[in-house]
What we know:
Elements: E1 2-7, H1 12-26, E2 35-40, H2 55-63, H3 67-82, H4 99-110, H5 114-126, H6 135-144, H7 149-156, H8 162-174, E3 182-185, E4 189-192, H9 197-211, E5 243-244, E6 247-248
Parallel strand pairs: 1-2
Antiparallel strand pairs: 1-3, 3-4, 5-6
Amino acid sequence: MRIEIWSDIACPWCFIGKRRFETALDGFAHKDDVEVEWRSYQLDPSLPDHYAGTETEYLSQAKGMPADQVRQMFDHVTQQAAGEGLDYDFDAIVVANSFTAHRFLHLAKTHGVMNQVKEELLSGHFEKGRNIGDVDYLAAVAQTVGIDDDETRRVLSSDEYTAEVKADIAEAQALGATGVPFFVINRKYGISGAQSPEVFAQALETAWDESQNLTVLAGAGSGADDATSDKGDDETFRDGAVCGPEGCD
């Protein structure tokens, strides 16, 4: 079973959603048969590489909200994060464009360590006050997961993986995502937002059960009623010759 998760490193609900999804996945009986793939998304592509103000100032200006209202929102999100074992510090957040970090995540994917890097970047941004737009920080993260420092700096000084990040964003929009986190299971079920572990668990069970049941579109097999015998020659699906335990038609 394949699960794709679109998220932005600068999205507080994405880290909370990651934890809640992981809680559900840990309790899923078939978790070893689940492939999780992180996909890129940007909430604010227009954000400069480095914003001089605080997170409160940025959101107040970007959303046209009073600073007090922004801080109340931060308090609520911080409480929700704490419930998942996360220690958010909005006062320490370094506001930066996340595009370079998303390119770095695609580099990490080629090394098979995308999930580890995703975790570190989210924690660095929301819990540790690290600058996700700083190449030195990204290179330091790379070294902790075994990616060569020179390779990281070479990639991030170029435009490598730019097309991949943009393709992820375009695909999310094509799928109807209007925000993140956005979870897609087997390209059939979409889950928007940092839902509860119970919601994720139910979605996993539903998708798994469905994936184990085959819908036969044509031909019930030898000895079955001919469901298409009265249909015209222009029907797309018709019974065909088959081989079974008793021999072949």
